[in-house]
Automatic annotation (TrEMBL), chains A, B:
InterPro entries: Arc/bac/fun_rhodopsins (IPR001425), Rhodopsin_retinal_BS (IPR018229). GO terms for biological process: phototransduction. The keyword Transmembrane applies. GO terms for molecular function: monoatomic ion channel activity; photoreceptor activity. GO terms for cellular component: membrane. The chain crosses the membrane at residues 12-32, 44-60, 90-108, 115-134, 146-167, 188-207, 219-239. Belongs to the archaeal/bacterial/fungal opsin family. It is found in: Membrane. Keywords: Chromophore, Membrane, Photoreceptor protein, Receptor, Retinal protein, Sensory transduction, Transmembrane, Transmembrane helix. It is a multi-pass membrane protein. This is Xanthorodopsin-like rhodopsin-precursor.
Length: 257, 257
């Protein structure tokens, strides 16, 4: 950790605070909508809110850790002994990343057995992906970072394959008013998740210094907001659309955006 | 930041505390009313409460930042190294200002496609308005403050135009018992939002010193309470009025005040 200017320190702190506020607000938005969806989608909304709840908790902790990690000396922020706790993100991802895939499965109206088997296999793959990244993240050795990063890419690529190929038919069979949203949700998952290995490997090729810290911390925060709150709004909309059907079976399905 | 008297410091702190209490109470008022409105208006109340929730969180943080920013020396409050974090307001506005327009759209019973397109365009315009103000707010240069302030007025004027002209017909088509409230809600939006550029440009013409700080901080707090909690109560009343219709279709609509 290096000395940061006022602007650099503040930008990162404000990003963490913004992350907390957005994720906490998203949590309540999802949970307050539970009463408006059919019972088969209520659990999906519970989990969607749990993901942002867990993430909000961690951003609160991350913000606190950031404040403790620096002290103001002559107009610049100097690192204290209490190193910024970067493990918070990995602990968060261990919980939230499997749940993100599960919430998507739960709004796809698959058969009970397919729901269980896909949720389990995707959840475990996500767990493995995050767990493999961690030793590389905390290591000082570039080589170790590369090895674990590449190992972590294996379950990631399997997940991407499942989302496009394994679940392809199920996605195309979604009702018309929700199909576009489900496709978008899948694309947002893969697109937003791609950000994390980019940051990870930038660390592996030696990107460092205050500017890199700003890019990494603000970048991860924005990626988390998109991947959890933004994605969650798509899940919410899918659940809402699919819950309209029973009330308005005559109403022609509005084209999904 | 300058030295403040006991009275000046306390007034501002108490304004922040009052802001938190009012906004937190408003949040719970809106959410506890969700069960009493028709399903098409529930999301509007969720969002109305989210706006005041996010604002309450930020007033809590703002109050804390205020306390950390001053130290009591010989009966006056002297600035500490920890500068008062004025970014909190902008981060708050980035989230809440788009949502304020969206909650108004959601109680206007527009068609699905118009609801989505207006909510999106107004939300983005609001986001742009706030984002353009930020560089001016944090700059020491009066010139920079002017430039960004004027740029920010462009999306603001577009929003005002939409509220009076673009949505004019939709507002006049509201049911009789809610029409006056919707007009009032629109007027409160524009009226309360006008306060912010006045404060912003007062900073650009060099208004400063302890008295200016009191006016700015207390003023912004009052404006936020009116624009979020006060406006939210109007949205709540509109949703309640429009939910009466189905129960009392024989009852002649009470003229809106």
């Amino acid at each position: 950790m290096e000395t940061l200017s006022l602007g650099q320190y503040d930008l990162i702190f404000n990003a963490f605070s913004f992350g907390f506020a957005t994720l906490a607000a998203a949590t309540l938005f999802f949970w307050l909508g539970i009463g408006q969806v059919k019972s088969e989608y209520k659990t999906a909304l519970v989990i969607t809110g749990l993901v942002t709840f867990i993430a909000a908790y961690h951003y609160f902790r991350i913000g606190q850790s950031w404040v403790d990690a620096y002290t103001l000396v002559d107009g610049v922020h100097v690192p204290t002994e209490k190193a910024f706790n970067s493990a918070y993100r990995y602990v968060d991802w261990l919980l939230t990343v499997p749940l993100l895939l599960i919430e998507l499965i739960l709004v796809m109206s698959l058969s009970r057995s397919e729901t269980v088997s896909r949720a389990t296999s995707l959840g475990l793959a996500a767990l493995l992906m995050v767990a493999l990244g961690y030793p590389g993240e905390v290591s000082d050795s570039g080589g170790v970072r590369w090895i674990f990063g590449l190992l972590s890419m294996i379950p990631f690529l399997w997940i991407v394959f499942q989302l496009y190929v394994g679940l392809g038919k199920a996605i195309e069979s979604q009702p018309e008013n929700a199909r576009g949203l489900v496709r978008t949700a899948r694309n947002v998952t893969v697109g937003s998740w791609c950000f994390y290995p980019v940051v990870y490997f930038a660390g592996a090729v030696g990107l460092e210094g205050p500017f890199a810290t700003v890019v990494v911390e603000v970048g991860y925060t924005i990626a988390d907001i998109i991947a959890k709150a933004g994605f969650g709004v798509l899940i919410y909309m899918i659940a809402m659309r699919k819950s309209e059907d029973t009330n308005d079976s005559i109403k022609t399905a509005v084209p999904a955006e």
